[in-house]
Amino acid sequence: MREETPLERLIEGNKRFVENKSLHPNRSLERRQQTASKQEPFAIIVSCSDSRVPSEILFDQGIGDLFIVRVAGNVIGPLEVASIEYSVLYLHSQLIFVLGHENCGAVQAVLAGTTKNIEPIASLIEPAVKTTAQMPGNHLENAVKKNVQRVVEYLQDKPLLKELIAEKKLLIKGGYYNFHTGKVELL
Fold first, then answer.
1. In what order do the strands lie in the sheet with 171-177?
2. What is the DSSP string of 19-82?
3. Which domains are delineated in the chain?
4. pTM of the predicted protein model
5. Could you give the CA distance from residue 149 to residue 106 in angstroms, rounded to a whole number?
6. Per-residue pLDDT reduced to its tens digit, 109-134
7. How distant is the alpha carbon of residue 15 from its chain centre?
């Protein structure tokens, strides 16, 4: 029997969450003790700081399973990239998953032009807002999804990550979380 890929593990975990059948794996005293001196997260999740988007719960994962990088608007700069590369290089994570979500406040702020005091975040979101301005459909949803795609493309172009992708040791994907259904849609 073939072992699940990291992406399949996330998708299956989200399916359990959506169906209210979470297993809450790897949350025992034994797991805490196993991971006390060493971690080996199979995936890195780059997600928004929004309190409604807790990756371990949405993907039904436990202690030591996920390496989480959270920042408003799920944007990344040098510090976030360094954290991601640390997990890939030293913790051997095999998947980077960039997760945007419905009604993202950071993207809404850029759309509304209310970005006072969040300019560094807003400047990273603005290109997604501008390129989706004329698209049919919901501008906020389109901008959130485009922002995810831009972060995925940015990461895929980083030399270390690009090399690992070419060697088939790393996969980078993006998704969109719907609050109402609980489902994470692959982008």
1. 66-70, 43-47, 95-101, 171-177, 184-186
2. TT----TT-SHHHHHHHSS----SEEEEE---TT--HHHHTT--TTTEEEEE-GGG---HHHHH
3. 6-186 (3.40.1050.10)
4. 0.95
5. 16
6. 999 999 999 999 999 999 999 999 99
7. 16
